[in-house]
């Protein structure tokens, strides 16, 4: 009976170890308390984006006043020039707008309301691959056999 208990304990320990190693996605409120709006300075969102670490699977939540702003993912060139004509994603017009980072690499977002991007309402983030634990806890040592 003790042998079955030991096997069950070992299996449970391995399962719990694997589960605890799985990273969970985070939800990040873009701009913090400021939200998604024309920023107080053109560098506001780039400064803000340097604080959190973004990972694949994270959700970016853009909070803004209805009808006042939008958000769309765009190419780097469109981000740099504030070109709103060919967004990579549908333009989101209602808040909270949630966008999940689905791939590693740079992602660029702008407000498509005329003039807002030029005033600094744009965001660039770099998502890293979701971390996963490749280490599995070592199995517990087997007790010595007692004759």
TrEMBL record:
Q: Which UniProt keywords apply?
A: Copper, Disulfide bond, Glycoprotein, Metal-binding
Looking at the record, the residues that make up the Phytocyanin domain are 26-129
Q: Which CDD domains match?
A: Stellacyanin
- List the InterPro entries hit by this protein, alphabetically: BlueCu_1_BS, Cupredoxin, Phytocyanin-like, Phytocyanin_dom
Molecular function GO labels: electron transfer activity; metal ion binding
- Kindly state one GO CC term assigned in the UniProt record: plasma membrane
The family database entries (SUPFAM superfamilies) matched by this protein are listed as: Cupredoxins
Record's PANTHER family?
BLUE COPPER PROTEIN, OS08G0482700 PROTEIN
Q: What is this protein called?
A: Phytocyanin domain-containing protein
Q: Which organism is it from?
A: Opuntia streptacantha
